[in-house]
Design brief:
mainly alpha
Amino acid sequence: MKADNGDKEKGLECYGIVYPDDCTSYHGPHSLDCLITIWEEVDCKVKGYRYPGNLTSADAALQTMNLRDVRTHMEAVKLAADDGHDDHQLNCYGIVFPENCTTYYGPHSVECLTTIWKSKGCLDEGTNAPVKLDLEEKGDLDSLPLDEVLDKFETTRITAESGDKEKGMECYGIVFPENCVSYYGLHDLECLITIWEEVDCKVMGWRYPGNLTVSDADALRSSNLREIIQNMKSVKLAADDGNDDHQLNCYGIVRRVHFT
């Protein structure tokens, strides 16, 4: 009787188990706090789909299991998650492990980190791309569980896309030109004009951003910064190599060579 009134010593004598905190009986019914304690001891997370606080009345069977069965049930969820079962990764951790990621906790392989890095929209060219990290920087990431790595990389991209030049270098490996506040766009006209002028094409050029048709401007605005820079540089290079059309596009004139 004492064992089922929360007496931990009697619980051990009677059932051979130390009651987890907030658990007062072996057979139940168990309180929500009791189930949460066991869930946390098993090392599943609050974000897990099967977190006791998320369960519905249809899942009430858990409350009436004995403590060993409750723990066995939760440990099975955790084991299946760590063995690569997508559904139980969601049940236990609230995320599906990205490709090349085999554990929730670090250390994480460079391949795992690279998968996450790219999934968040950052590039291999970024100065903080996982393959470029030193041992200390890699160790900092290894100390984080997967969901925190996901959040960290996403924050890097979001901050970069808000116009932060340092984060732009970290994520994309490019310094945003003046008036350009994102890598992927949509870019405004001032951003396109800045790149045009940095390439050293002229306002008179037929492909000057302010002269473009709506459809041509929209296509350029929705390109990423590297594609825009490459596009404009190719116009300039072709013009300087003697292409009449691109001399008009870049400079607004055709340069003729006169022989004497």
